[in-house]
Amino acid sequence: MSFVPGQPVTAVVQRIEIQKLRQGENLILGFSIGGGIDQDPGQNPFSEDKSDKGIYVTRITPGGPAEVAGLRIGDKIMQVNGWDMTMVTHDQARKKLTKKREDVVRLLITRKSLEEAVKHSKGSHPRQ
Amino acid sequence: MFCRNQTTRATVARGSALEMEIRRGKFRKSDFLHTSSQDSDIQKKIDHEIRMRDGACKLLAACSQRDQALEAAKSLQTCSTRIMAYMSELQRMKEAQVMQNVPRRSSDAGPMDDRLPCKGKVAISDLRIPLMWKDTEYFKNKGELHRCAVFCLLQLGGEIFDTDMVIVDRTLTDICFDNTIVFSEASPGFELRVELYSCCSEDDYSAGSTPRKLASKLSSSLGRSAGKKLRAAMEPGACSPVSNGGAAPLLLPVPSVPGPKYHLLAHTTLSLSHVQDSFRTHDLTISGNEECSYWLPLYGSMCCRLAAQPHCMTRQMMAGWLKVKQCGGDPKTWTKVYAVLKATSLSCYQRQEDVDANVEPALTIGINKETRIRASEKDPHGKGQNISISNRYGGEEVTHTLNTESREDTHSWMEAFWQHFYDMSQWKQCCDDLMKIELPSPRKPAPVTPKQGSLYHEMVIESSDDLSSTVSDILARRMQELELRSQLGTSPTWMSVFEENSPKSTGFPVRPCTSRLSGHSPHSPHRLPSRSPVSPHRCPQPGLLSSDASLTSDSDSHCSTSPCSHRHDWPEPSSSFSLLSSSPSRLRPRTLSLDAKLSTLRGRGYGGGGAFQCSCQPPSSSLLAPHPASSRSPLSQRSTQTTLSCSSSTSSSSSSNSEGSHSPESSEGGPFSRPSPARRSLRNLRARLDPRNWLQSHV
Questions:
Q1: Which residues 6+ apart lie within 8 Å of B411 measured at CB?
Q2: Going from the N-terminus, what domains does chain A have, and what CATH number goes with each?
Q3: Which residues in chain A touch residue B638, judged by CB atoms under 8 angstroms apart?
Q4: I need a labelling partner for B62 at 20 to 30 A (CA). Which of B1, B209, B368, B405 fits?
Q5: Is B688 part of the contact surface with chain A (CB cutoff 8 Å)?
């Protein structure tokens, strides 16, 4: 998932749609994020490339909306409702996820296992 | 020829060192004339010490190296102190004898008054004396490296022991003595006198680490402190208190020999009230002042572990055959047992051989301060008297009745019980539980302490080690020991940060989880209620929270962050992270553990510089599933295993974090005493996801 500056980033992604849960007067998603262009990428335990300043999922509330929707810890969030998450600050990312007027967030996430799954499937089903 | 006196047979053996000293006029012969044969062993001891002292003097005169001279001077000091102690004991004995000759007119005292408490073993270990250098001296390396040689002299009753000598300079924060000193026969009213002696370790400037050219330059231009030092060095006894204490009229002072001389720097006296099964801090009385050459800036306290094992806890006080029945049982069922009174219980065995065979006793009756023992009237059913022992267990009272063969047996058992109670009342807290005293094994290897370099600190590789363990394992174990030792002195607040499984997590019910700093997000106030926990334990007021957050106070922040963030959301972490096992490359010796800790400490400052929210989950009961492991799909496992890669810098620090603290659950298997890989990986992850290092937000 490392990127070459100036080149488009390609990744195998999965779409996850999370319905926000209302708790009192707040809408919560049930996960935590870490990362951002203003953060130290070396501290990220989930990223493969330690210069990756993307937004990663660091924790999932068990049974929460995110987990139910299929989000997993260590996922890298590429987009939220169409907004890019690969080049944002930490707080910008958080804001995009916690808009009060939105009930649902559609995430584009990527994880290593997805790439591997695709690779394996390619290998086992060679193209005709 | 023996010198005899008519009244008693006083023998000063011919040719003994004592006789020589008498001839030399150092001791008065008349002092020895009244000694009886009882004192001959003291005399032998004095003899022995005098010989040692002579030897030390000769060695001191002969040796050229500074280290050897210091050691020899230390033995000289010890010998002199011992001689003084023996002489004063001799004096006391003489006085007691004189008193005995006076007829006593006091009436017979009751048996309780003559009762003497049992003696015990007293052990003092892990002495540590903190120093208080000026920060300019300690950090900026200003000034000459003033080195002192120190050692401790410990005196209890007639036994005097000294610790090893330690060279102290301003790079040390504490003076640590690793020796365990055990005094065998101490009475409960003991007084353990601890004295710290020090001696300046430099006579001239070229003896230090200064290069020759610099040394000559320095010595030729004397500044104020340098001049003071030189002057002090030239008159070693100038600012010391009277070295022999002036208390011994019998004994002339220590023979003056050229060479280093130790002076008393601090002293304290410990007694039964200071005995505890853990480390305690005691105050020191410091003598001397800054002007003296042997001065060290002591913080004023001393930390040590003083343990006592009274003999009533370690030895069998009474043993014999008895018949026991429990109250409330059939009066006819008397069980014949072999009973042993020791420590806090009366153990009843079926056979006498069971005692040595380490078989579990058939019946154990507790004997402690709450127990009530009564001798009842003569039992009409059988011979001998009954003794009843009552204990309260919980709410109920349990009584056992003992029956002995004869009246004499009953009397001796009662006597034993009374003595036991008396001992327990005298030894107080030492009789609650048996305190462990580790006898220093002669082959214990000294840990590598490069700063406290002395001739005698060497790395010993025990041949009793498993031959298959490699040198690196031994090194690693040594590092661990070194680490443990260094941790004794560090402040507990920041150490506790790295104790992931420490009970501090129970502290978080008190600490608010969300610490808001610097009002970064304007919509923080209304977000707080969501974060404010549903659980009853935490205090949800937002106003409180914002004021409480403080990064600089370690105890606050650690409480509010790591346990909160990790407590609720990873109840079953091992299943997810079990595959996050460390690659073999991470198994390196933790040589940099202390440095690594410091570096993460610095990193902490970075992570918390900006505003951050503690990523704690409100444990809304609807969300918190008791066994989320089952709900985790296999997909997550695979994903975590592959996405969780280790970054080199953080992994080393966090691995040392989690293993550096001597957590109780670390297994003894393997040289590193590592916890299980699952736990370790979890701890690694938790350490790395510490919001202080890396900002995380909860959405």
A1: none
A2: 13-112 (2.30.42.10)
A3: 113
A4: B209
A5: yes
Could you tell me if the ipTM is greater than 0.90? no
pLDDT digits (tens, 9 = 90+) for B301-335: 999 999 898 888 888 888 888 888 776 656 667 78
Res A31: pLDDT: 93
* Chain B positions in Cβ-Cβ contact with residue A12 (cut-off 8 Å): none
What pLDDT is attached to residue B338? 85
Q: Return d(Cα B387, Cα B404) in angstroms, integer.
A: 8
Is the Cβ of B561 closer than 8 Å to some Cβ of chain A?
Answer: no
B80 CB burial (10 A radius; 0-12, 13-18, 19+): buried
Q: What is the pLDDT of residue A78?
A: 93
Query: Which tokens sit at B651?
Result: 């992994």
- Which residues in chain A touch residue B689, judged by CB atoms under 8 angstroms apart? 34, 45, 58-59
* Chain B contact probe: residue of A21, A96, A113 with most B CBs at under 10 A: A113
Determine, for residues A24 and B689 on separate chains, whether the beta-carbon distance falls below 8 Å: no
In this complex, do A45 and B699 lie within 8 Å of one another by their Cβ atoms?
no
Distance in angstroms between the alpha carbons of the first and the last residue of chain B: 100
Fold of B19-100: Methane Monooxygenase Hydroxylase; Chain G, domain 1 (1.20.58)
Q: Does domain B117-202+257-310 have CATH number 2.60.40.150?
A: yes
pTM reported for the whole predicted model: 0.46
Confirm or reject contact between B525 and chain A (CB < 8 A). no
CA-CA distance, B423 to B426, in Å (whole number)? 5
User: Tell me: the pLDDT tens digits for B120-154?
Assistant: 889 888 899 998 887 666 666 655 677 888 999 99
